[in-house]
TrEMBL record:
Source organism per UniProt: Sphingomonas aurantiaca
Protein name stated in the entry: protein-glutamate methylesterase
Principal EC category: hydrolase
Positions of the CheB-type methylesterase domain: 189-382
Single GO MF descriptor: phosphorelay response regulator activity
NCBIfam families registered for this protein in UniProt: PRK00742.1
EC number(s) stated in the UniProt entry for this protein: 3.1.1.61
Amino acid sequence: MASRSPPVPRPDRAGPQADGFARVLIVDDSVVARAVIARLIDASDRFSVVGAVGTAQAALEFLGRATVEFILLDIEMPGVDGLTALPDLIAAGQGAKVLIVSSSADDGAAASVQALALGAAETLIKPSAGALSGRFGAALVGKLERLCEHPALMPPAIVVRPPAAAPAPVPSAQPVPRPAPTTHRTRAASDDYDIVAIGASTGGIHALSQVFRELPVGFRLPIVITQHLPASFMPYFAAQIALLAGRPCDVATDRLRVRPGRIIVAPGDAHLKCVALGEDGAAFRLTHELAASGCMPSVDPMLASIAEVYGARMIAIILSGMGRDGAEGARRVRDRGGCVIAQDQKSSVVWGMPGAVAAAGVADAVLPPDAIGRLIATRRRP
């Protein structure tokens, strides 16, 4: 296969994004891969490769003199590998989204979930040099296009309101008054809810890591997570979450009991729902019906079912992700007197899911992940 010299910053496309092209930096030690990937990207009508380098150090130097919207990063490179360099590249990129493009990025591979936890926006397996075209090119450009989705549903500001107040005005959304709590239990100021439910998609794993970093060792409430990932990712995802949170984390199985001190994640091929067991507490059920969001697993049925069981004794968190999954479930939580928190736009890789919740007027607060973690730790409403 013929190759060309790696592209260098072009004056017409290396400055501010005035020409409509999103700028891309390729970081890959293979000259052939850099050339072919550059050609695939430049053939699109939305993206332009403004730089291609072979090492992480060269990428940092490039980012010191140019800005980009996307960084395509290989994992296996000489010197500093991609995973080790990822946090520094994210910092140097000043908002650039990192897409891992590597032969090590298999579905379910430990490296893939680790990269997402470190802040990568997406992963894509890189085929052999002879297959760097066709379907791979379409998949690559498609992932970049989806990462460009930024529904501007409300200003990227932190919004916090007391639960008794009317919702802050949000464009195209009607204020929704908070109903009276439906629980018959008496609330204590320091014991405001009994379960945490979290929904997330693209960018959510990194946000989860920031949330868990703020939880104290003694935090014992059960935490339930629906994260959009293929089923093959789930075993390592659960292991990664256990490591981040410092507490046991299991992939849900049918009829698993809700227990204090544990984290439960939805499997990649079933919805996770909660059912009451009377005096015996609650348990999880796995279902496979079509969800309105089209997602499997979907955040909506998880939130709605937990709201039916726990009512005002739950807190729902919607983190970074594409689409609207979680918006209807969050409304059910709100209707049952529960608390709803959405991640803010500035810290989100894609402000689709949390943005939809904020626009619907059902969020009690819109916060960055670290602030969400601190709020959860207090067990108080915002």
